[in-house]
Amino acid sequence: MRLNPTTSVHALLCTQEWSDASQHAVAMSLQDQVAQIGSADLLRHLQTDAVLVVSSPVVFAHGAVKRIQHLAAHPNRIVTRVLLPDQDPGGVALWSGAWLRRQGIDLENLPAYGLAFDRAHLSHVDPQARAWVRADEVGVATFNGAGTDVRRWARTEGVRLQVRRSLVAARSLLGRVRRGRTLSRQRRRQGEQAHRQVR
């Protein structure tokens, strides 16, 4: 699934057994993160790049969908599933829209397609066809796990993950600088030793 900043993600929510409060919270948390939240019938007629299937009542922190997209950005990726503690492993999944269209997959049944479907239809040779990401790495939590103020949780969790990502990037840069300095010192010493031996 080759994704870029303009990639359109449409969300398919399967809310049959959810409470009204959880339906509202999930939809609210996805606001401004996906191009559209719709039914299978509506999404069937759209040329969407990716379909985010949500069949467990979970909420998304600010930037969560972008983080899932980033982790799904591989040309051969078909599905990226989000692992939630003590939840159905198929509860949140980002599917390649192009693959779904090529295969003629009925979006109405997509939420029911769990791991058995993956094993039957996805490549066993290509390890990039499917991926798993931890919910806490991307900012997804069960509706109850987010507390009573979902908006506040979404904002603070989004900021926390952004800060963590920035710290990781800064540490990586510092590590490269340190390694470069160490290598430079080693080369300088080797050069000095070689110069002394020539004398």
Write the topology of this structure.
Layout: E1 9-13, H1 20-30, E2 36-38, H2 40-44, E3 50-54, E4 58-60, H3 64-71, E5 79-83, E6 92-96, H4 97-103, H5 115-121, E7 130-134, H6 135-138, E8 140-142, H7 150-198
Parallel strand pairs: 1-2, 1-3, 5-7
Antiparallel strand pairs: 3-6, 4-8, 5-6
Characterization of this structure:
46% of the residues lie in helices and 17% in strands. The protein is elongated, with a radius of gyration of 22 Å. It starts with 8 loop residues before the first strand and ends with a helix. The protein is α/β, with parallel strands linked by helices. The strands form two sheets. Strands 2-1-3-6-5-7 form a six-stranded mixed β-sheet. The longest helix is centred in the last third of the chain and has 49 residues, at 150-198. The protein has seven helices and eight strands; from the N terminus they run βαβαββαββααβαβα. The mean pLDDT is 80.
Structural key phrases:
199 residues; alpha/beta; 46% helix; elongated
Rg from C-alpha positions? 22 Å
- Our estimate of the beta-strand percent is 15-25%
Sequence of secondary-structure elements: EHEHEEHEEHHEHEH
Structural class: alpha/beta
Distance between the termini: 61 Å
Question: What profile does the largest beta sheet have?
Answer: 6 strands, mixed
Q: pLDDT under 50 segments (min length 5)? A: none
- Determine the number of helices (DSSP H or I, runs of at least 4 residues): 7
Strand order of the largest sheet: 2-1-3-6-5-7
Shape: elongated
Helix content: 40-55%
Overall strand count:
8
- Give the overall average pLDDT: 80
